[in-house]
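Good morning N.,

You mentioned wanting to compare the apo and holo forms, so I went ahead and generated the holo version with iron/sulfur cluster. This is what I fed in:
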Amino acid sequence: MPDEKKKIVAKKQVNPKDVTICDATAQMIAKAQRDGVELAFDRAISMKACPIGADSACCKHCTMGPCRLNAKDPYGKVGVCGADIDTIQARNFGRMVAAGTAAHTDHGMGMLDLFREVVTGHNKDYRIKDPFKLEAVAKSIGIETEGREMMDIAKDLYEELERTYTQVDGEIPFAKRVPAKTLELWRKHNLVPRGAMREIMEMMHRSAMGVDQQYENIVQQCSRTALADGWGGSMVATEISDILFGTPSPVAIETNMGVLKEDQVNIIVHGHEPNLFESMLESVNEPSLIQAAKDAGAKGLNLVGMCCSGLEMFVRHGVPHAGNFMSTEAILVTGAVDAFAVDVQCIKQGLAKVADCYDTPLITTNYRAKIEGAQHVQFDENEPKACTDEVVVKAITRFKNRTAAVEIPPIVNTGVHGFSHEYISYMLGGTFRGSYTPLNDNVINGRIRGVAGVVGCTNPRVKQDWVHVELVKELIKNDVLVLQTGCSQIALAKAGLTTPEAAHLAGPGLKEVCETVGMPPVLGMGACVDNSRILIAASEMVRTGGLGDSIADLPAVGCAPEYMSEKAIAIGQYFVASGVYTIFGSTYPVVEGTKFHKLLFEGLEELGFGKWGFAVDPYEMAKMMIAHIDKKRKALGIDKARERVLMDMADRQQLSA
Ligand code: NFS
Ligand code: SF4
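and this is what came out, ligand included:
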């Protein structure tokens, strides 16, 4: 029970079962209420969302305002400068895209900085773990690899990829991976990113007071900026992390709060950059530190992940994962967390107060992201263990002096995760002829109706995990293969859908494919930056043939049903610009009936791109996604094949009955 002085009792308290379907999180919300500790769930009900802001109908880009327009009569008013609703919404949207893109590209740049240090020999703590991936990535952007030393290829790759950020003119390197027809469309609309820094800068400039005031033109830069994320910063983050830390392949892994151990020193790492976590893994395996933990009376050191860096370790090394974004405060309520180390992104400031209530050291490790009330131990890649060893020592000290009563929800789920796009090709095509042909064949013959990426955050404005889980169940039931990243993947892992046995929840076609290959109907691919893996998988499907000439032709859809972050908006926009119909849930920052809304939700598709969609209800989302998949199947002329295959299957079932 926390110290009286530390408590921050919520004004209004939620009913745990109303706000989450995660039983462990619900149990901890109830405990927090007994302990007198407020969580984001409670704050979300007393802090109502501002309705004008939710519609993105306000502007504070200069001090003649802030100006508020009326969403009920969107064209009835303009701002002091004369900006109309379309300009205001498009500018706000553009700045969300810029912020999201900046987050992913800064993360990717961090990985590239480390890669440079390793390649130049300045850093000996990390090394190239996957030389095959290095070669494949180098080849994919035209770097000569035949008969060359690995380090020479790596140097060239570094130099090429640096252009993703710093180039002022031309096309970013990974544009070479985009299917020809998609790239042609981008070129026609002047959307191929030059360099991420330039695009983000231009987006910020154009959305400032008195600059770009034509919503279509603003959306053009939104797309170009977002593409610098998906095919730029995020893709660099994924590829370099694979090269340095290993490319994921499927492992059976444990998730949920039950991965904490009462008799061990529990250390959680939460954030986004895998370098901290990789070093933490070394620290917890250090014999002297293990001994110190034992001397303190613990059975050992227990390292656990949360959110996206947790997912990177989950899919690369099988490190257990304790939960997604809306469980980060709740897990501290267990009293069992001996250190909570964070780096960047999605780290609620509210963690500081909750950690303080349970005497858990909250440790920030990245100079970019300090938190008032937290301890800071700077992480330096050139001396990584200095920081991570210190975190372990702090955790051991806290374990020794544990005063908080420990209550760990006894729930552990096991799923199979780590489906990189390379592995999908290998899994379906076999070791010697790894290819996407079997996937395409199964889509063409209709066993797999289409592919859906279900990704993104959890958000206290909707019941945690519920929309993710219901939506995915609906999709697989209808033979849609689901690819997952980010917090969404943890929602499904907790619901038990990432196991091969979950195939029995799939429709007959998908079930047959899953059972033949031994794969789950829901494939966890990694963190949010790993949405780039979905882009590459989509490009491979186009290249393999039989499903059209561009990403927009594929029977594929995307969805972030419980999103909250600006990063999600950037991801949504790069999927749309790449040709994918992308549906968001919870809320969408636009006034319906405006020209800006019409452009995002209809106009972009007419130009040959994907388009945005919005729904709150998971069944409605599934319906929209399946209808789109069927529309694409029809356009490809493969709608009949599916009818045949299902009829065959029904016949076969009848025969065996
Ligand atoms: Ni993605 Fe990862 Fe989670 Fe959302 Fe946050 S952790 S980068 S933004 S909340 S999925
Ligand atoms: Fe108001 Fe225009 Fe200034 Fe925005 S830029 S705050 S709409 S005056």
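The first helix runs from residue 16 to 19.

Happy to go through it together on a call whenever suits you.

Best,
F.
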